[in-house]
Amino acid sequence: MVNLLLGYQLNQFGLVPRTTSHFTAIFYWSFLHGSLDHLLTNSIPFTILGLLVAVRGSYYFFLTTLFISITSGIVVWLFGRTAIHIGASVLIYGYFGFLISRAWFDRQPLSLIIALIVVITYSGLIFGLFPSTQQISWEGHLAGLISGSLMAWLLCKQKPTKKQLQE
Hints:
It is an enzyme of class 3 (hydrolase). The chain crosses the membrane at residues 26-52, 59-80, 86-105, 112-130, 136-156. Its main location: membrane. This is Rhomboid family intramembrane serine protease. The chain has one domain (2-7, 33-166): Rhomboid-like fold, CATH 1.20.1540.10. It has 7 helices and no strands. The protein has helices at 2-5, 36-54, 58-79, 89-106, 109-122, 138-157, 162-166. It starts with a helix and ends with a helix.
């Protein structure tokens, strides 16, 4: 909303690959949006998929969100095309990859049910993984999907503590 009030002037601080002055954007690039429409388009899937990630607790939600944003930011900074990359779609794709991969790795009934719902509802996201227009960061989408899948694998390898399960 601050970016909207400032006429989207904060977007100049988005992630620009291989530019050292924009490297710190990996910490916030997924929270900048190019327009109100861009923000609103991302809001519903971000909320729904984010809530499904949060089913396991706030610890998993915050850890997963941070991991996806930073890891995919590093990947885009290293390999993305020269452009300003912004938007929560990286998190949407990350949550999508996380939820499906989580079901694959842990094979628990809850994870499988959630993954089935996600695949049925959001399978159209697959088309965003391919270059279509200059305004869409397909690199961010792909990096988000990979980062979310990697996070699911990492979390399935560790056993949660009692404190994490209670949060």
